[in-house]
Write a structure and sequence with these properties.
The chain has 384 residues and is of the alpha/beta class. It has a domain at 7-127: P-loop containing nucleotide triphosphate hydrolases (Rossmann fold). The chain is built from 16 helices and 14 strands. The strands form 3 sheets. A 6-stranded mixed sheet has the order 9-10-11-12-14-13. Strands 2-3-4-1-5 form a 5-stranded parallel sheet, with helices on one face. The protein has a 3-stranded antiparallel sheet with strand order 6-8-7. Strand 9 and strand 10 form a beta hairpin. Helix 7 packs across helix 13, helix 9 (161-179) packs across helix 10 and helix 9 packs across helix 13 (261-267). The two termini are 30 Å apart. The relative contact order is 0.09. Residues 16-130 form the AAA+ ATPase domain. InterPro entries: AAA+_ATPase, AAA_14, DUF4143, P-loop_NTPase. This is ATPase. Pfam families: AAA_14 (PF13173), DUF4143 (PF13635).
């Protein structure tokens, strides 16, 4: 079993907050992590709101939860019963104990936080992502395996690439045919599959709503709604552009990424490293893989953007630190990375002192103008 890096942080939160939330995509390991966290707790109640039998237990939720006030209660898929949130507030205010409830959700943080506004000051959230590089054993091409298969546990840990590919295809099918309709989205799974495949083909590119709408044969508002649906369910990342007060013509559209490269490759029918190496998506795929890794391990409150001007100045990933210091990152899929003129220009535009080039090699080293070339094993140098 792969130990998740967040487990100690979540344990600590249970000591200091009455309610702890773990958010993340379906099948990412939230339930497994929750049960691992609570192995040492003797009195635990687990409720899965996808099971009719468990939902029935909550027909009179106040009575049921009061009966278990001395036990920790795990509520899985909490977004399915949003009316529980005000009740949880009343219960934790009455009992005054930390670690009373552990709630798991597969809707977006924005949606869950909106539903749980009444719990302000009583709940802390953690997002559980697919496996990241620091969680796997970097031997025998494990990073390449993570890149190819993605980090969903059943995909990454599958006995071979074929089984992994079959799992990812089943995951996509279930997400389109079951999970999204449960969010009261009345769009055919065929249309959503076509849309998601278009996102995959535009991975790491500027998003053009009008072009996608025209290709799909639907309205621009429909395309925006589809994109938001997949963003809210942790499938797509919209990386926003960074704006500063300079006299430049800046790009204003977001860049889009399929967050898990295993799902990206499944949508593009890429199921082994040989096919990935030969595919035109390889550079964009690597860029998205690295960006997702970095955002997932960045310190809390660091903000992530990209930067691009119409004249060609560009930064693949731009972090703003807690003190608003910009950190510029360029991502190259090359063992001999060459820094583009656009990167130099962009870092001059926004006065970046910290500049990094990330590449798939093994050695990290510094070059001119305080730029550091980093291997995937030295990501943490960015954050200190």
């Amino acid at each position: 079993m792969i130990k998740r890096t967040q487990i100690e942080t979540i344990k600590n939160s249970l000591k200091h907050f009455p309610i702890v939330g773990i958010l993340g995509s379906r099948q990412v390991g939230k339930t497994t992590l929750a049960k691992e966290l609570l192995k040492r707790h003797k009195n635990v109640i687990y409720l899965d709101l996808e099971l009719t039998s468990d939902v029935n237990k909550l027909q009179a939720p106040e009575i049921y939860l009061q009966q278990h006030k001395n036990e920790m209660v795990i509520i899985d898929e909490i977004q399915r019963l949003p009316e529980l949130f005000p009740l949880l507030r009343a219960l934790v205010d009455q009992n005054k104990n930390n670690g009373q409830f552990l709630v798991l959700g597969s809707a977006s943080p924005a949606l869950i936080k909106k539903l749980s506004e009444s719990l302000a000051g009583r709940i802390i959230y953690h997002e559980l992502t697919p496996f990241i590089i620091s969680e796997i054993n970097n031997k025998n091409n494990q990073i390449k395996k993570l890149w190819l298969r993605g980090g969903y546990p059943k995909s990454f840990l599958a006995p071979n690439d074929l089984i992994s590919a079959q799992w990812r295809e089943a995951f996509i099918k279930t997400h389109l045919e079951r999970d999204i309709p449960q969010l009261n989205i009345n769009t055919s799974s065929i249309t959503l599959r076509r849309f998601l495949t278009m996102v995959a083909h535009n991975h790491a590119s500027l998003w053009n709503t009008s072009n996608i709408a025209r290709s799909l044969g639907v309205s621009a508002p429909s395309v925006k709604r589809y994109l938001d649906i997949f963003t809210d369910t942790f499938i797509v990342r919209q990386l926003q552009p960074y704006f500063i007060n300079i006299k430049k013509r800046l790009i204003k559209s977001p860049k889009v990424y399929i967050r898990d490269t295993g799902l990206l490759h499944a949508l593009l029918n890429i199921y082994d490293l040989e096919k990935l190496q030969a595919h035109t998506i390889i550079g964009a795929s690597w860029e998205g893989f690295i960006i997702e890794q970095l955002i997932n391990i960045a310190p809390e409150h660091w903000e992530s953007y990209f930067y691009r001007t119409n004249s060609g100045a560009e930064i693949d990933l731009l972090f703003l630190t807690n003190n608003l210091e910009p950190v510029a990152i360029e991502i190259k899929y090359s063992l001999s990375p060459k820094i583009s003129k656009g990167f130099w220009q962009a870092t001059e535009d926004i006065k970046c002192k910290k500049k990094f080039i990330l590449y798939p090699g093994q050695e990290s080293y510094k070059i001119k103008n305080d730029v550091e070339i980093l291997s995937v094993n030295d990501f943490d140098k960015i954050f200190y």
